[in-house]
Amino acid sequence: MTLTWTHKPFPALTLSELYALLQLRSEVFVVEQTCAFQDIDGQDQAAWHLLGYTEGGELAAYARLFGPGISYPEASIGRVVVSPRFRRYGLGRQLLQEALATVAAQFGPQPIQIGAQQYLQQFYEDFGFRQVGEGYLEDGIPHLHMVRP
């Protein structure tokens, strides 16, 4: 399955795009992972939003991207999510490849830091990320800080 990718700063998002990305994040991070947390955290306005659409126009994959100095001293990628309806097609890998390319295009080549769920450590290591520091709990879920030089 191949997606059509678009990336936009917050002010350029349409209401439909904003609704779809918030719906997907809520579906996975709040409902599926049974994690009550403040998803709308005040950082969306500073992010670039990467959206991957199916041929039918459904949002299947999403991530938000930050320049350096917003979430971490380095550029960062967060809220990495693939819709449950479109898993098992390799979209997570496509999403991360697109996110890395978009960060480089928007902010120049540089290190990228993420806060990754611990169970995805190997996935991110496959893309050159390495754990830095100790693991931590975020909203009851084990996480790791990881950096890609």
Could you please describe the fold and organization of this structure?
- 27% of the residues lie in helices and 34% in strands.
- With 149 residues, it is an alpha+beta fold.
- Strands 1-2-3-4-5-7-6 form a seven-stranded mixed β-sheet, sandwiched between helices.
- The longest helix has 18 residues.
- The chain is globular and about 40 Å long.
Keywords:
single chain, globular, alpha+beta, seven-stranded mixed β-sheet, 149 residues
- Estimate the mean pLDDT confidence: 95
How far apart are the first and last residues' alpha carbons, in Å? 30 Å
- Read across the widest sheet, the strand sequence of neighbours is 1-2-3-4-5-7-6
Strand content: 25-35%
Q: Report the count of strand segments.
A: 7
Biggest beta-sheet profile: 7 strands, mixed
Question: In sequence order, what are the helices and strands, one letter per element?
Answer: EHEEEHEHEE
Work out the helix count. 3
Q: Over the alpha carbons, how many angstroms does the gyration radius reach?
A: 14 Å
Low-confidence stretches: none
Helix content: 25-40%
Principal-axes geometry comes out as globular
Oligomer type: single chain
Structural class: alpha+beta
Quick synopsis:
Helix content is 27%, strand content 34%.
Which helices and strands occur, and which strands form pairs?
Elements: E1 4-9, H1 15-32, E2 48-53, E3 59-66, E4 75-82, H2 91-107, E5 112-117, H3 121-125, E6 130-138, E7 141-148
Parallel strand pairs: 4-5
Antiparallel strand pairs: 1-2, 2-3, 3-4, 5-7, 6-7
